[in-house]
Design brief:
The chain has 13 helices and seven strands. It is mainly alpha-helical and about 475 residues long. The protein has a single domain, classed as Ribonucleotide Reductase, subunit A, CATH 1.10.620.20. The strands form three sheets. Strands 2-1-7 form a three-stranded antiparallel β-sheet. Strands 3-4 form a two-stranded antiparallel ribbon. Bound molecules: fe (ii) ion (2 copies).
Length: about 475
């Protein structure tokens, strides 16, 4: 790796990087390690491909990105914060009304660092989880999309690493290095959060991940975008502009799969899952099981239903609620309560607890509302083909490892079962080895002819940016 890089040029930024020698040197040390990580853990065999990618170049709402062919190792991972808002204040918690912090408040330093590290850790994790999928992409369009998601997760890592280097000195630099050392699914040194250690073994899992799990990212980033620590708020605000595309890839990806399946079912008048599979498409029951899995592991990412950490993050002004400043209340929540689900006497009941301790649950509920709207749109697609099957979100307590429902055996319908009852139904509710084997067998090769799509997925409605669907989105060289 060359050591003589002009970093002012090499790292596009709007944070005056060239003026801050110490910061520049710190990033100079980190950059080759990042590139080493990308070569090892970035998309497999992709380094020489020319990919039609979007690159963020500014924070103007108009024209913030350019589209062109790029070899991914040469992608210009930049550091961008939305411009500061004059007179911005801490908008919630006990410090409400103070000027927003431009530096880290000493007493909140470790809490803030933990929030940034936890967010930062998810970004490279998903790249690691997805690194083999390019080998079996259903089209050049989809291949380009996964690469787009991957490079932008790389940029999100840069965004968090910038904050660590700029505001946390030596321990920030150590955390930035550790972000490149942990590995998704590694037994000894795993990523911090559960869902980011699960494999993403096929494209159905990838689309589910970008629909469900990237959307968790959206809600976490949105509440960090409310932070009283202004640089964090401004960084997250900009990351959200990129995140929208990731969720688009997920929603339309699943949507195109169910569309294709429903069309084939209608055309051949079949509904038995085995017959559907025999026609080379993914049966809707399998789609439902994948949905159940990705939804439940993602719900866990929001944390415990009753959480004193969440209360501290809020009270201090470090992490707000979703769209905090649009909510009409006192932004202190000292007397407010909120309902959380729990199991009592063999039934799921609602319990009123102090709203401050229920902030994870509240964010989870905001998230569920948006997820439900996406599922409704998938069902419209199925309905259009005249197929009666409908996808549903399982009960919030189904298959949970964290919070009030952890250790309980809740059915997708919300019934409290015994371990034996639940396990007897497991393969009806969650993908099993047979499902993974079937889905992967369908995805053995990569479709490389422009405009062609694998049999199990419908083409998208339009191409990327202004390009047609049969555009050569990736050139393999
Ligand atoms: Fe991200
Ligand atoms: Fe994302």
């Amino acid at each position: 790796m060359t050591s003589n890089i002009d970093y002012i040029d090499k790292i596009p930024n709007n944070v005056d990087l060239g003026r801050d020698r110490v910061l520049q040197r710190a990033l100079e040390h980190w950059q080759p390690a990042y590139m080493g990580w990308w070569y090892d853990m970035g998309p497999n065999e992709s380094h020489n491909y020319d990919v039609y990618l979007r690159t963020a170049i500014s924070v103007d709402a108009e024209g913030w990105a350019v589209f062109d062919y790029v070899k991914m190792p040469q992608y210009r991972w930049g550091i961008f914060l939305v411009p500061p808002t004059q007179g911005r204040e801490v908008n919630f918690g006990v410090n409400k009304g103070q000027p927003a912090w431009q530096d880290v408040p000493g007493e909140y330093r470790s809490m803030l660092r933990r929030l940034i590290v936890t967010q930062g850790d998810t970004e490279p994790a998903s790249v690691e989880q997805q690194r083999m999928l390019g080998m079996c992409a259903p089209s050049l369009y989809d291949l380009r999309n996964i690469y787009q998601v991957n490079v932008e997760e790389g940029r999100h890592l840069w965004a968090m690493v910038y904050l660590l280097h700029r505001y946390f000195g030596r321990d920030g630099r150590e955390e930035a290095e550790a972000l490149l050392d942990r590995r998704s699914g590694d037994v000894d040194n795993p990523r911090i959060l559960g869902a980011f250690n699960e494999p993403t073994p096929d494209w159905l899992a990838f689309y589910m991940f970008t629909f469900f799990t990237d959307r968790d990212g959206k809600f976490q980033l949105s509440s960090l975008a409310e932070s009283g620590f202004d640089p964090l708020a401004r960084t997250c605000r900009f990351m959200l502009t990129e995140e929208a595309h990731h969720m688009f890839v997920g929603e339309t990806g699943v949507g195109r799969i169910v569309q294709r399946t429903a069309e084939v079912m209608a055309e051949h008048r079949v509904d038995d899952p085995d017959h559907v599979r025999a026609l080379g498409v993914i049966d809707l029951q399998t789609v439902q099981r994948y949905l159940n899995f990705h939804y439940s592991v993602t719900l866990d990412l929001f944390g415990g239903d009753v959480s004193s950490n969440a209360a501290s993050f809020y009270t201090t002004g470090l992490k707000g609620r979703y769209e905090e400043t649009k909510i009409q209340d006192d932004h202190q929540l000292t007397d407010a309560t909120y309902k959380v689900g729990t199991v009592k006497d063999g039934r799921v009941i609602d319990e009123e607890i102090p709203a401050l301790n229920a902030l994870n649950e509240r964010l989870r509920d905001d998230y569920i509302g948006e997820v439900q709207a996406g599922v409704d749109r998938w069902n419209k697609t199925i309905e259009k083909s005249g197929i009666p099957f409908r996808l549903t979100l399982p009960h919030k307590g189904f298959h949970r490892q964290i919070g009030n429902f952890a250790g309980q055996f809740i059915s997708p319908g919300g019934d409290v079962l015994t371990a034996g009852q639940w396990n007897a139904k497991r393969d009806e509710w969650l993908p099993g080895q047979a499902d993974y084997t079937f889905v992967q067998a369908m995805m053995t090769g990569r479709v490389v002819e422009p405009g062609k799509f694998a049999n199990w997925i419908a083409p998208p409605r339009r191409g990327i940016h202004t390009q047609p669907i049969d555009f050569e989105y990736v050139r393999f060289n």
